[in-house]
Write a structure and sequence with these properties.
217 residues, mainly alpha, 6 helices, 2% strand, coiled coil
């Protein structure tokens, strides 16, 4: 009879590091104005962006991280979230709390509650996606649709590439741009337009005031 003593080394699986990503999906009306102001401050009050795109892109990314926030880096996979909204986020948070409750006390009541929360999340996700696609189709052919350009390009890039790495976008006339130079030039135009919107509104308001003053004299 042979007796063999063996020592096995059990290696704990190391959790893969997930890159924290900027929440570009929040670049909508509620955050757009703050983003515009912070970006202008970061660029020293300039309205026309510098020609050095690498530097400008880094300033844009840093401003986005500060204003819009970043993900926790704990996600299991890189999911497309350009359609994300607060209702979906709240539903998912409630589902997580329901899962913890069921894990701690596995009663039938808690199980049914958790299953209902799961169904609710699915409904909210489906509703949010449908609403986002409807709005997208309506806005893509308008100037208003340009406001979604950066956010959509960023979220639909499976590799999580940043601004200067997006290779295919459209110009104002709907033509596809594929060269790196033309893509970077279009991004530059887009952010200049974004920053100029506030100035244009101020000029229109000033002109209306001048006209009212002229008529009253």
């Amino acid at each position: 009879m042979v007796v063999c003593r063996m020592t096995l080394m059990v290696c704990k699986k190391k959790r893969s590091e997930i890159e924290k990503k900027t929440k570009w999906w929040k670049l909508k009306e509620e955050c757009c104005e703050e983003f515009r102001q912070k970006l202008r401050q970061a660029l020293g009050g300039q309205v026309v962006l510098p020609d050095d795109w690498e530097t400008t892109a880094e300033v844009i990314r840093e401003t986005g991280r500060k204003v819009l926030g970043v993900s926790s880096g704990r996600g299991k996979e890189d999911k497309e979230t350009w359609w994300w909204n607060e209702e979906v986020q709240d539903s998912i948070q409630r589902k997580r709390l329901g899962k913890k409750k069921w894990d701690m006390d596995r009663t039938e009541e808690n199980r049914q509650e958790y299953k209902e929360l799961q169904r609710r999340v699915k409904r909210e996700v489906s509703k949010a996606k449908q609403k986002a696609y409807d709005e997208l189709y309506t806005r893509l052919d308008s100037r208003e649709g340009e406001k979604d350009l950066y956010r959509l390009a960023r979220q639909r890039d499976r590799d999580g590439k940043d601004v200067q790495q997006v290779r295919v976008i459209k110009d104002r006339d709907g033509r596809v741009l594929t060269s790196e130079e033309s893509v970077q030039r279009r991004w530059k135009e887009y952010f200049e337009e974004l920053m100029n919107e506030e100035n244009e509104r101020g000029k229109k308001k000033s002109r209306r005031g001048e006209l009212c003053g002229t008529e009253s004299r």
